[in-house]
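Q:
My hope is that you can spare some time for a protein that puzzles me. I hope you can help me see how the letters and the tokens relate. Thank you; the sequence and its tokens follow:
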Amino acid sequence: MTNHAGHDHTTHAARGAQAGGLSVSESGYTLELDATVLGAGRQTVTFRVTGPDGQPVTEFVPEHEKELHFIAIRRDTSGFQHVHPVRDEKGVWTTELTLTPGDWRFFTDIHPAAHTGTLTLGADAAVAGAYDPRPLPEATGVARIGDYAVTLDGSLRAGEVSELTLTISRDGRPVTDLQPYLAAYGHLVALRVGDLGYLHVHPEGAPGDGVTAPGPEISFMAVAPSAGTYRLYLDFQHEGVVRTAEFTVRTTTAAPRPDATPAPEHTEHGGHHHGAHAHH
């Protein structure tokens, strides 16, 4: 989750051309879980990231104030958790998760000091017990968390950068005093339904930059690597509590550019109306 404020959006599009987190190993770095079968309930999860030399990595470039961001999600897209494990001097990471029975996917968002940029590695784990999969929530433009409502504006387009704006209110009133959380007013993780491909999503602006207001709106630049359905998870902090708003979105067909040559009438425009990470 790099602080991408002010970065070139062309770079964003290039990075978003492929979903991350689909592999347990990339560029010689591997996510190694100590256990891939876990119990239900509050569980301690330990793991390491090994480097090209096969040894646990102990030097990382902090991004959004942390050396490693850890995302846990059940395969049915429920149970989202974004946590920050603690690393010992030997490179072993430890964190606490609340797990329900079923198949889970764990992601590590990292920037090893010896590597040129960020990597998202993913690994599967199974949680024992009777699995009660949840249907995919309906696509909606408003998420409610207690007395908070988060409204999503903008659409996610396959292969093109688009802006997503999330507006937070409480009891019908705009929230204008969001608190910085990990060097941003909000963090957005986006996952592709079907394979849980992890999208790179970038916050616009940063607390204290003299431009970015502490709510009610939080804006992100995102690009979907393919048409389809995605799940969005927004973490925001208010009055000392971090809350998560969840959305189901479908990609939309990109609007034609003004200078684009009109397509022949018989050409199909691929895409169902689809509308809709991650990487923060």
Q: What stands out?
A: The first strand starts at residue 25 and ends at 26. Residues 1-16, 260-280 have pLDDT under 50 and may be disordered. The chain has one helix and 20 strands. Residues 48 and 92 are 5 Å apart (CA to CA).
